[in-house]
Write a structure and sequence with these properties.
DNA polymerase, domain 1, binds guanosine-5'-diphosphate, about 40% helix, alpha/beta, binds magnesium ion
């Protein structure tokens, strides 16, 4: 008898995630001027954007896509020796430095804040290196103060947004008794109080219904943040001289992987002799929508997903061994795709065929 799906197989009803529901997510590098944002960006991308000792030198956000290293992907490529290999990538934007007062337009603040609004997560670079040649906008090196400065700007911008929203809602509420308007108004008041308390939106304990509404706002402090403390290479070298190159190489892939996970991206694989490919999707994506990242027909005509777990394939060595062990599973429309699933989609659209 085939194994019956037990309770523990059922996906727990997860709370929705704050942020955009999309598979095209990106992370932005944010911080004060001269903290090392562009330097970090250049290292990560190996692109040569000039890192100059001058605030406001980067006005247009610079974009780059960097590969996400993954041993599972490498292993699959070894196994299938495919003609084409496509790994996952993280899109990173180098955003120009924010200064105190940015929320009120200081230092082209509004333009830069709109660039932050367009990303799904933040690499917040903090300067911990001392260097007389590199000016600090507040004269002294103090990463904790800097963290607060940026945090405060983002919160003030969010307060402004929510305040405007409250005023709009109040106008609408005079004309309509729509319950949704009242719910949104209550939430906005709650969010405003939370921000005025000095707390970022992402730290709030919001209900599922609140999160659905918050996700239509794209608030700056709702975005996930990864803090990167930029310390002097010299300080680092003094202590760990011979290990430095190794540490350097490890740290960068780790930062990329951390950023990728922080914005709630995962990926599933398609694997065969033609191609091994990572398909990135947002966490909580169901099988038909995951199929849709490959082709809209796959979503429209979705029949089922045949799923192998990477660990099972690695342990058993081949697809046929996984099948023989009864671990090759058919999943339906409600299946929530998990990171590292190896999937073969079956679909049917009129006039189309099976993959
Ligand atoms: N001494 C030292 N200088 C650095 C470090 N990181 C960046 N810099 C220098 O600081 C200046 C500003 O860096 P940049 O990356 O352009 O800062 P951004 O304004 O945050 O993009 C440049 O001259 C960099 O070479 C570091 O770790 N130590
Ligand atoms: Mg820069």
């Amino acid at each position: 008898m085939p194994p019956k799906a037990s309770k523990k197989d059922a996906a727990p009803a997860e709370r929705p995630i704050l942020g955009r529901f999309s598979s095209h997510l990106k992370i932005g590098i944010v911080g004060l001027p001269n903290v090392g944002k562009s330097t970090f960006f250049n290292i990560v991308t190996k692109l040569s954007i000039p890192a100059e000792n001058f605030p406001f030198c980067t006005i247009d956000p610079n974009e780059a896509r960097v590969y996400v290293p993954d041993e599972r992907f490498d292993w699959l490529c070894q196994l299938y020796k495919p003609k084409s290999e496509v790994s996952a990538y993280l899109e990173i934007n180098d955003i120009a430095g924010l200064v105190r007062g940015a929320h009120a337009g200081e230092g082209l603040g509004n333009a830069f804040l709109s660039h932050i609004r367009a990303v799904d997560g933040i690499f917040h670079v903090l300067r911990a290196f001392e260097d007389k040649e590199v000016t600090h906008i507040d004269d002294t090196v103090d990463p904790v103060r800097d963290l607060e400065t940026i945090g405060e700007e983002l919160r003030l911008k969010d307060i402004e947004f929510v305040q405007n929203k409250i005023e709009d809602l109040e106008k609408s509420m005079k004309r309509s008794n729509d319950k949704q308007l009242k719910l949104e108004h209550e939430l906005c008041e709650k969010v405003k109080a939370h921000l005025e308390d000095g707390k970022d939106v992402r730290f709030g304990d919001w209900k599922s219904a609140d999160i659905e509404i918050l996700n239509t706002f794209q608030l700056l402090t709702a975005k996930p943040v990864v803090y990167l403390v930029n310390m002097s290479e010299k300080d680092y070298q003094r202590k760990k001289n011979k290990f430095l190159p190794k540490i350097h190489a490890c740290v960068i892939p780790k930062i990329i992987k951390t950023g990728f996970a922080a914005i709630h991206l995962i990926y599933f694989f398609t694997a065969g002799p033609d191609e091994v490919k990572c398909w990135q999707i947002r966490r909580q994506t169901k099988a038909p929508q995951a199929a849709g990242t490959i082709h809209t027909d796959f979503e429209r005509g979705f029949i089922c997903a045949e799923v192998m777990k990477f660990d099972d394939l690695k342990e058993l060595g081949s697809e046929s061994a996984v099948k023989a062990a009864g671990k090759y599973r058919q999943e339906g429309k409600t299946y929530v795709v998990q990171d590292g699933d190896i999937i073969f989609f079956k679909f049917n659209v009129s006039g189309g065929g099976k993959k």
